[in-house]
Design a protein that fits this description.
Elements: H1 20-23, H2 29-45, E1 49-52, E2 63-71, E3 77-86, H3 107-120, E4 123-129, E5 143-144, E6 159-162, H4 172-186, E7 190-191, E8 198-203, E9 206-213, E10 216-221, H5 224-237, E11 240-245, E12 248-249, E13 252-257, E14 262-266, H6 268-277, H7 305-311, H8 316-329, H9 335-341, H10 350-357, E15 365-368
Antiparallel strand pairs: 1-6, 2-3, 4-10, 4-11, 5-6, 7-8, 8-9, 9-10, 12-13, 13-14, 14-15
Length: 369
């Protein structure tokens, strides 16, 4: 089974630079320069690599910079983030990596947890693991080129021998999960046998759930002291950022009315980003995503080379994927039509594209009582 994650369908900001050179020559270069310096400091502080001579017969993997403007649920800029990544696609299986599988919490579990929170009126806080993947230890010998503009004087000919599972490595997510699982289970938490990214610790009448989403952590408890104790424990082992009460997780806004026992989940910001990306932000909303009489069939697929060429540049699969994430998280009412539209990813026609444009929801909230 495949569980879609928010970062896989996180709609990019068109103003974000795509290379290091573009970042340092754009109007926001001061912020991007500070972000890259912070990233490199994290590398040095965590001992991510050692500079060594490249062994004979070995080939270093390349690197790239990823830049992203982080915004809150109200679209305000929170910070500028730069990430140094290796070009993992050049890794060779059996040499540079062996296992890559890593557990990921499901959206079904997320909704169950939200229901428990609303029903028992629990505290729910959020923490972020800074440079999470840098905590994972590598079992293989992997060499990376030194980042341009950050090479050490007199050592430009050396390469980076990675000690930690830097972002971009195929095994990075797995190594981080294994490290986190080992630490958390040693501190009294028990792993859920169905969803391996959910942990529970019970202390008398007090209990706390811990939900891991790669580098985002949700803490749910009926005891504020146990909540503080768990935060302190996590901060002891990892470089953490305490975000306080959870309000915006994985692109989903959490709205609570604790007096009436109501919890709402909204992807309004995410959906508006989709609409803007596909030039639909001025469209009016529809009450239903599909109406009686709408039909999708192979007969609507391109019938000749000219029609196929016309549809080749249409971002159909990208929009289906973006809708799929909204459907899995909160917009369950579009599940049928997204499933129908998904059948024609490999051979879409103009009528399918027109239908999907009419599918995009303008604003959807899912309630839990």
């Amino acid at each position: 089974m495949i569980y879609l994650q928010e970062h896989e369908y996180d709609v990019y900001d068109a103003s974000d630079p795509t290379t290091y050179q573009k970042a340092i020559h754009c109007p926001q270069f001061t912020y991007w320069k500070e972000a890259t310096n912070d990233e490199m400091n994290s590398m040095y502080m965590n001992g991510v690599w050692d500079l060594v001579e490249l062994p004979h017969g070995c080939k270093p993997v390349g690197y790239k910079w990823a830049f992203k403007t982080k915004r809150d649920s109200n679209k305000r800029i929170e910070r500028y983030k730069a990430r140094l990544m290796v070009k993992g696609y050049s890794q060779r299986e059996g040499i540079d990596f062996k296992e890559t599988f890593s557990f990921v919490s499901t959206k079904d579990s997320f909704r169950v947890i939200m229901t428990i929170i609303a029903h028992f009126d629990l505290e729910v806080h959020q923490m972020d693991v800074k440079t999470a993947f840098l905590n994972g230890d590598l079992d293989e010998d992997v060499y990376m080129e030194q980042p341009t503009s950050f090479t050490e004087v007199g050592k430009e000919h050396l390469v980076c021998k990675l000690n930690k599972s830097i972002y971009g490595l195929k095994q990075a997510s797995r190594q981080w999960y294994m490290k986190f699982d080992k630490i958390i289970t040693q501190n009294g938490f028990k792993e859920n046998i169905v969803d391996r990214c959910i942990y529970l610790r019970v202390n008398g009448s007090s209990y706390i759930f811990l939900v891991l989403y790669v580098d985002d952590i949700l803490l749910i408890s009926n005891d504020s002291d146990l909540l503080i104790e768990t935060k302190d424990m996590l901060s002891t082992h990892f470089d953490m950022k305490d975000l306080g009460e959870a309000s915006y997780v994985l692109g989903i806004k959490i709205l609570r009315d604790r007096a009436n026992g109501v919890l709402k989940l909204s992807q309004k910001t995410y959906i508006e980003k989709i609409l803007k990306r596909f030039s639909m932000h001025n469209y009016s909303s529809s009450k239903v995503p599909i109406v009686k009489g709408d039909k999708f069939s192979k007969a609507q697929c391109p019938q000749n080379d000219d029609e196929r060429e016309e549809m080749r540049t249409i971002p159909y699969s990208s929009l289906v994927g973006s809708l799929m994430y909204a459907q899995v998280c909160t917009c369950h009412d579009i599940a049928f039509v997204v499933g129908m539209l998904g059948r024609y990813l490999s051979n879409l026609g103009s009528q399918h594209w027109e239908s999907i444009l009419n599918t995009c929801p303008q604003k959807v909230c899912w309630r839990i009582y």
